[in-house]
Amino acid sequence: MRTETPQPIRLSDYRPPAFLIDKVELTFDLQPNTTRVKARLDIRRNEGMAGEPLKLNGERLKLISVAVDGRKLGEGERSVGPEFLTVAEVPDAFALETEVEIDPENNKALEGLYMSGGRFCTQCEAEGFRKITYWPDRPDVLSRFTVRIEADAKFQHLLSNGNLIERGELPGGRHFAVWNDPFPKPCYLFALVAGELDVLEDKLVTMSGRTVDLRIYVDTGMAPRAAYAMDALKRSMKWDEETFGREYDLDLFMIVAVRDFNFGAMENKGLNIFNSSLLLANPETATDMDYERIESVVAHEYFHNWTGDRITCRDWFQLCLKEGLTVFRDQSFSADMRGHAVQRIKDVKALRARQFAEDQGPLAHPVRPSSYLKIDNFYTATIYEKGAEVIRMLKTLIGAEAFRAGMDLYFERWDGHATTVEEFIKCFAEVSNHDLTAFFTWYEQAGTPRVRLASRYDPAKRTLDLELAQQTPPTPGQPTKTAATIPVRVGLLDQDGRTQAFERDGEAVDETVIVLDAAKAKVRLEGVDRPPVISALRGFSAPVVLESDAEPKDRYILLAGDPDLFNRWEAGQELARELILSRAKGRPDDVGEERFAEAMGRALADQAADPAFKALLLSLPSEPDLALALQPADPAAIHEAREALRLRLAVHLAEDLRRLHSGLQESGEFSADAAAAGRRALRNAALELLAANPRAETAELADGHYRGAGNMTDAMGGLNALMLIGGPEYELALEDFYTRWKSEPLVVDKWFALQARDPDESALGRVMGLTAHPAFDAKNPNRLRALVATFANFNPVRFHDPSGAGYRFLADQILAVDRYNPMTAARLVDVLGAWRRYIPELGQLMKAELERIAKADPLSKNVFELVTRSLGEDGAG
Ligand code: BES
Ligand code: ZN
Fold first, then answer.
1. Is the pLDDT of residue 1 over 60?
2. Residue with the nearest Cα to atom 5 of ligand 1?
3. pTM of the shown model
4. What's the rounded Cα separation, in Å, for the pair 66 and 78?
């Protein structure tokens, strides 16, 4: 809690650890309120660190005893503060034994050892291990862990990392288990789970012929709902063997699902811990989106076994070394599983919604930041999503083969170590003979580059001159920017929408990558026989904002037939964005809107196109996305303009949409596969669009859809449409839904989230009222996020109520939650941080709430850091 102004930690201050710990033995005597943790650490002084005192992190620990080489230290030989245990004089090699007491039951921060649903579980990344025992809590201290767990026999399963080496009974109705993890690991990868659980078991034979036992532990009775996660796990394991040559290394891999969890999931060595929302699924309770998320998160955490666990980060500034890379790996996996174009579109949508917004606000930071107060605040879209984009660009620049060779070298060179982004990039420079010095700008410079593209076609010479220019707006602490290395993938169509080949440097091609690595570049394409339509930044080859001189007619040609599906989708988005923004600015383009509706009708009729792709085509840019393009942002104007275009589409396409809706109705057995999910997505998207026209027959259709739903995807699709239409059918369905699902926490979360997204005027009052609902529990992060974060992030028109009541509501929630769970409270701050982008009447009210939070005492470091950065100097400063 805040007592004085906290001091930032800086990358430039990095020093190697003074002491290393080769081996540790931990003994847990588990009791909900009084858990005893004994630790025996084999410590040796690191080279060149003579004279350094032993300084161990430890927070909220009750110290019972501490001994060096078997001798108990007296009060005068050690000092204990709220954050450290220090022993001034220690030998160069010694055994340290400590005993502490902790209170898992009352740990509502959900960091360290805590209880969820009557079970013990842990979350140590980034700095939670210090709440379990005294330890140098930093990722570059790698140790071999042996863990003994003792507990009452009612805590049936006693789990930790690695291999089970012993278990047995103890007197007094207690039992024990001993686990050994042969792989040295940093403490943030430690995990322990104890309790009653059901288990789903399976096996996998690895590429070298070893059999690995796979176990997923879940709430009693839920094992069948882990089947999809198990299947995703096996596919992930095979994929990493085939794609990166990476084999699993222990004989056992376990996943445990818990209900109370601050994040999505955690990659603890051999014992991943998951938020149950990202693990449990059956068709009745989970949507296709849930299935898709489960598949990608299971893969992500599994892939960390190599990119994170076997090779970890030297310090937390290197977080993207494991997270950006692992997101890149899980995105590649999902693309292979579900289709490259659709996956790419979804990833870019997420990147724009979250990372581009972050990059434009006061919390903008580089993929590798250079200072922080609380590392928990840097698990951001920039580290994750932009971090993944950087890896993707690296692969584009050096080619797939060199990329794989670089990864191989990285695994070989750094296995078993903690390393840095520099060392990672060095591997690729070495294998490819590319100078990647300039590329490193992507890691050190915040902000989204704007790329301008201008073109001139000379029909006589058959040349196309392209002029590219880049510029990155200032971000906090980085007023001036240097040019980044930007790969721009380009192809050409002709006026009839056919691909046209061209020549680059004398070679005939259909597509080329232009590398823009200076402020400006000119490129001449030759052999361009017919007037071209340029398809630029194909596949979104770099995380930039592209501003081109393309005209609407070019975009219609791309929308109709660009073989690059990403750009086909992008053309539709651009057209929609322009139409919505000009309407929001008071200049509606009725003719343009009709033309757009017609083009969408043709795109929907395309029999060759994948339904999942068409569903994406149909969904207009989101309101937060549009708010980024309209400065200053006026959420009410954006909402109205977007609804107007939706209504136009709903009216113009009514027949097509209804035909789609009835034609895609499926009977027979449910399949979770991508093709079936794509058809459901398109059918639900058609219904959602129809709901923009709230006529009685639409309400009837939505009601029928809801009542006839055979799975949760369709039930939510129907309920969503009813919500958009409003009225008695909606209220009845809402009640019906709750009555039916009230004993299923993950479904009740959906019920809260749906109401939080309601754009109707009544929503703010309804959301505030729901905090008093018996099923609302702010101590459960899933429930809190379902209501509060969904409202603040996905209901802009109601959150930005002109009275400021939405902001006040959010600030109250942040302050209340910060009392016991700072990490989760801090994750609610960023929406308010965007205050400078909004019209002043709103921006000032947002700012006032940030100021109110900043004044609160006590206030966690987590929230303090984000509110002060949000209020701090302008990005342009
Ligand atoms: N290592 C993280 C978990 C984590 C997140 C620890 C934040 C500490 C703070 C894990 O690998 C992760 O990235 N989880 C994501 C989901 C993932 C699929 C992107 C999460 O929890 O949101
Ligand atoms: Zn991760």
1. no
2. 263
3. 0.98
4. 9
